[in-house]
Amino acid sequence: MARIVEVDIEDKVEWKRISDFCKRQKGINITAKQMKELTTEDGDVKVFAGGNTVAYLYQEIVGRENIVDKPSVIVKSRGTIDFEYFDKMFTHKNEMWSYSISDKNNIKYLYYYMKTNIEYFRSRAISGKLPQISTGVTDNYKIPLPPLHVQQHIVNILDKFDTLVNNIKEGLSKEIEQRQKQYEYWRECLLSFPK
């Protein structure tokens, strides 16, 4: 049986707390009302709030010191507990936080691992008007860290599946192409008779 990921016998998987290898980024103090009033179609900084609420603001409004411009995992910590990967300029409301990572690890690997274990995080939410988790829930969460080349390989595979599943235009065309090849193969097999 072929292995999906080649791992040398010397390759070790380390279990580390997220806070041990990630930098936690703070958000900005902004209300939903301000987001609604200040958003503009050509704003170059995406501002995340709870759920699917976003605004697009100019850098001058957000303040350069509040902008994150490296690939990160955004922790939606209130209401619907969830995670989002984002790799353009952004910030978020101050009740949320995000993580960036060193070059020794892959931030998208962290994202996929956290998404896979989302029920763990949701089960740690404090009930109230809106479910909410604290920074300690994610900071202290341990994840397995294989070598970077293994992380990258896992991310590449999951990205391909994500595109096929979530990008209907690309995913559907690839599915149609595969079904067409399958159809042609079986047509040839079923209609080929010995002479």
Instruction: Report the end-to-end length measured between terminal Cα atoms.
Output: 39 Å
Q: C-alpha Rg, in Å?
A: 22 Å
Average pLDDT: 87
Task: Assign the structural class, choosing from mainly alpha, mainly beta, alpha/beta, alpha+beta, or little secondary structure.
Answer: alpha+beta
CATH top level label of the largest domain? Alpha Beta
- The sequence of SSEs as H and E is EHEHEEHEEEEHHHEHH
- CATH architecture field of the largest domain: Alpha-Beta Complex
Spatial ordering of strands, largest sheet: 2-8-5-6
Number of helices, where a helix is a run of at least 4 consecutive DSSP H or I residues: 8
Spans where pLDDT lies below 50 across 5 or more residues: none
| Main beta sheet | 4 strands, antiparallel
Strand content: 15-25%
CATH topology of the largest domain: Adenine-n6-DNA-methyltransferase TaqI, Chain A, domain 2
Number of separate domains: 2
Give the oligomer, counting copies of the same chain as homo and different chains as hetero: single chain
Output the CATH homologous superfamily of the largest domain: DNA methylase specificity domains
- The count of β-strands is 9
Question: Fraction of residues in helices?
Answer: 40-55%
Described by the principal axes of the CA atoms, the overall outline is: globular
Task: Describe, in short, the structure shown.
This protein is an alpha+beta fold and 195 residues long. It has eight helices and nine strands.
Task: Describe the overall structure.
By secondary structure, the chain is α+β, with helices and mostly antiparallel strands. It folds into two domains: 14-145, DNA methylase specificity domains (Adenine-n6-DNA-methyltransferase TaqI, Chain A, domain 2); 147-195, no CATH class. The chain is built from eight helices and nine strands. A four-stranded antiparallel beta sheet has the order 2-8-5-6. Helix 7 (148-166) crosses helix 8. The longest helix has 23 residues, at 168-190. The protein is globular, with a radius of gyration of 22 Å. The two termini are 39 Å apart.
